[in-house]
Every structure is written in C-alpha cells, then in structure tokens.
UniProtKB/TrEMBL annotation:
<feature type="domain" description="Aminotransferase class I/classII large">
    <location>
        <begin position="53"/>
        <end position="395"/>
    </location>
</feature>
<keyword id="KW-0032">Aminotransferase</keyword>
<dbReference type="InterPro" id="IPR015421">
    <property type="entry name" value="PyrdxlP-dep_Trfase_major"/>
</dbReference>
<comment type="similarity">
    <text>Belongs to the class-I pyridoxal-phosphate-dependent aminotransferase family.</text>
</comment>
<dbReference type="GO" id="GO:0008483">
    <property type="term" value="F:transaminase activity"/>
</dbReference>
<dbReference type="InterPro" id="IPR015424">
    <property type="entry name" value="PyrdxlP-dep_Trfase"/>
</dbReference>
<dbReference type="Pfam" id="PF00155">
    <property type="entry name" value="Aminotran_1_2"/>
</dbReference>
<dbReference type="InterPro" id="IPR015422">
    <property type="entry name" value="PyrdxlP-dep_Trfase_small"/>
</dbReference>
<dbReference type="GO" id="GO:0030170">
    <property type="term" value="F:pyridoxal phosphate binding"/>
</dbReference>
<protein>
    <submittedName>
        <fullName>Aminotransferase class I/II-fold pyridoxal phosphate-dependent enzyme</fullName>
    </submittedName>
</protein>
<dbReference type="GO" id="GO:1901605">
    <property type="term" value="P:alpha-amino acid metabolic process"/>
</dbReference>
<comment type="subunit">
    <text>Homodimer.</text>
</comment>
<dbReference type="InterPro" id="IPR004839">
    <property type="entry name" value="Aminotransferase_I/II_large"/>
</dbReference>
<keyword id="KW-0808">Transferase</keyword>
<dbReference type="InterPro" id="IPR050859">
    <property type="entry name" value="Class-I_PLP-dep_aminotransf"/>
</dbReference>
<keyword id="KW-0663">Pyridoxal phosphate</keyword>
Length: 403
C-alpha cells in the first residue's frame, strides 16, 4: 500500500533559534577556495606539519597499547585520563579536580558558552577577537561589547569605563600572541584586568593556545595565575583558563583542557557528558606519555622555527609592502596583522590575491560587531621561506595597485 502524499514540511522553520544563529567559519570557507596546490596560503592558522613528532607519537602509541592493553581503547571517565590531569594540575599548582580534559579547545569554548551564557548576557570581547570563540558563543545568543585594543592588548582604562556602566557576565581574551593580531597583553594590564573584573563580578575566559610559542621578549604571568594569587583558592578564582596541545604537539589528537573553579567544573563535566562522554582515551594516554620529555623538546623546536619564519615574513613585508600599511610585530604565536588605509576592503581584494596565487584572511570576520574591513591576517607558520618571499611579493604588488 502506498503512502498518501503528505504536506511539505518546512525544514528550515523547524530549526531552533539557536541553530538559525549559527554561521559557517569564514576562515574555513576561505580555506576551501585556497586548496589549489599552486596557491600560497597564509590564511589558515595551521601548525607546520613537517615539525610534527611522528616517530615519538608512534612510539608513545605502542607504549600505551603495551601498558594499558584494551583499557586504552575502552570508554573512560568524563573528567579525563588521571595521569594527564595530574600533570596539568601540577603545572598550574592546583588540584586535579580543577582540570577538565576537552576534545580540542574549540569544544572547551563551546561548553563554556553553554554553561555560562544565557540569552542576552553581555560578553566583552577584544576588537578584533578570535573568530572561533564568536562562532562558539553565538548560538547562546549573547550581547557583545567590543573592547578597544592597541599594541599592548586590551585598553584597561576603556574596560573600566565599560564596566562602570555595563553589567557584564563574561570577558573573553587571548592575552598571548592573540589570534588574529599577534599582540600580547602587557603584564601591567593583566593585573589591572584581573582586579577590575573581580571588582565588578565579571568572569574571565583566558584562551591560551599559543602561550608556549614565545620566541622573543619576556613571558608574563597568566590571567589565571593572577586570579589564583588574588583569591588564594582555585575554587574562588573568577578566571577560567583554556589551552591545548594542538599548537605544541599535534592538532589531530584533539587534546585540550580547561581549568576552572568547582561550581563551573561541575557543570562543564555534565555538559561534556552530553556532548561526547569523554575525550578519546587512547589519545589522552598518548599525550600523557609525551608531556615529560617530548613536549619540552617539541616546544623549543616549534619556537625556533616559527621565530625564524616570523622574522623573515616581517623582513619581506617591510621590503615589499607600501609604507601606508601598518603591521604588528609578534613576540610569539602564529600571526601577523596588517592594517591598510581606510576605504580599502580586504575581502573584496581576496579574489585578486588568489588570482596571484596567494591567500590571506580578511579582518572583518574577527570583529563581533562589524568593522575592520581594511585589515587582514597572515599566518607564517606553515610556509617555507621561498613561499613567504613569493607570496609577500605578490601581495605587495596587489596592495600597491590598490592604494
């Protein structure tokens, strides 16, 4: 018996308001366009694959299987592999109960948005800020307020003025070698930011995937450590810390973590149970095998390589770009940020750049409330010196014609 024709279902209308608010990653969409092998891409913030410790990962995987057997391939606890959590906790001087393993830092941001943000909550973000955080938070329907930044990071005087008049739930920041600008929040501003947010009852998410990748300058204390110093108790700390092994070891294992006070951690665990039960056991065990000896060597190797590539890209930018183009000078991380004269639209220029076989990320998607049309981001991490020289020269020709 055949079924009677049914009325058409409006599938788009069936989507939740949360789903309707989601947007595709602008960077991922750009990367699709730049996958042609002849295009030199400075667009994606990808770790250099030739630096991956393949043999060390292979040896660690064998060790894990020999030591744990079937347990390495079994379901595990939501909180994470105990030896890995304990090692991370020891680095921060906190109990392991304040550490939650995540399946990539992007999951950490998504789950933090889920447990912290109600519709209409005010979330303070840098202008510009990490696009992936905006993508994670947007489904929870926050109200964004942009904080001005300069070469020293967030303008804390402007932050204080905002907090005097705007009740805010949360401040999200990338203090070390920020994505997209490469800027670093100064030590003096870090302390003031922690004091101000504590005074006004604002939670802080410190996103720190690049902190270990410093190649010049002196390290500054994390916001989390300053919050711990301020409160004296990890379960009273209003700063939440998020980081990852993706930029220091390998991104494909998708191992990251969050450090937070117990009330937040309890809800993060419950949210993760609903998302994926736990981060893959085998991957966590592999990382735990690598953190003692391989990770420090790998960090040093990556630092040296990225420092050389950043310096070379800066040299080529200085030589090939018009003098009207301003640029950041990163002390670490993966990115260089360019500001062109007002009226130049870097998104509109991108197709012409791709025709010249070079790609970048336009800056406007990094602004929560719009703007930045005259900015762009370059990544130096996964390009060879020859590619950097050729690609920057091509971009310089394009920009000279546009200005």
């Amino acid at each position: 018996m055949s079924l009677s024709p049914a009325p058409a279902v409006d599938l788009g209308a069936a989507l939740s308001r949360r789903a309707q608010s989601m947007n595709a990653s602008a960077i991922r969409e750009i990367l699709k366009v730049t996958q042609r092998p002849e295009v030199i891409s400075f667009a994606g913030g990808l770790p250099a694959p030739e630096l991956f410790p393949i043999e060390e990962v292979r040896a660690a995987a064998n060790t894990v299987l020999d030591r744990y057997g079937p347990a390495a391939l079994q379901y595990s606890t939501t909180e994470g592999h105990p030896p890995l959590r304990e090692w991370l906790a020891a680095q921060a001087g906190i109990p392991a109960a304040n550490v939650q393993i995540m399946t990539g830092s992007q999951q950490g941001l998504d789950l933090l948005g889920k447990v912290l943000i109600d519709e209409g909550d005010t979330v303070l973000v840098e202008a510009p800020t990490y696009l992936g955080a905006l993508q994670s938070f947007q489904p929870y329907l926050p109200r964004y307020v942009q904080l001005p930044t300069d070469d020293g990071g967030i303008d804390v005087e402007a932050l204080e003025e905002v907090l005097k008049t705007t009740p805010a739930k949360l401040l999200y920041a990338v203090p070390n070698f920020q994505n997209p600008t490469g800027r670093t929040l100064s030590a003096e501003r870090r302390r003031r930011l922690v004091e101000l947010t504590a005074q006004y009852g604002v939670l802080v998410i410190e996103d720190d995937p690049y902190g270990q990748l410093r190649f010049t300058g002196e390290p500054a204390p994390s916001l989390y450590s300053l919050g711990l110093e301020f409160h004296g108790d990890p379960d009273r700390n209003h700063v939440i810390y998020s980081s990852s092994f993706s930029k220091t070891l390998v991104p494909g294992l998708r191992d990251a973590w969050v450090q937070a006070a117990a009330p937040i951690m309890t809800k993060l665990i419950q949210a993760k149970q609903g998302a994926d039960l736990h981060t893959p056991t085998f991957n966590q065990m592999i990382v735990a095998e690598l953190v003692q000896e391989v990770l420090p060597r790998q960090i040093e190797r990556v630092r040296q390589a990225y420092g050389e590539r950043a310096r070379f890209m800066l040299e080529r930018v200085q030589a090939d770009f018009p003098p009207e183009v301003a640029y950041t000078i990163p002390q670490g991380g993966m990115f260089l940020w360019l500001t062109l004269p007002q009226g130049v639209d870097t998104a509109a220029l991108l197709p012409a750049a791709v025709e010249r076989r070079v790609a970048y990320v336009p800056g406007s998607p990094f602004y929560a409330l719009g703007g930045g049309e005259n900015t762009l981001r370059l990544s130096y991490t996964s390009a060879t010196p020859a590619q950097i020289e050729t690609g920057i020269h091509a971009l310089g020709d394009l920009l000279r014609g546009a200005l």
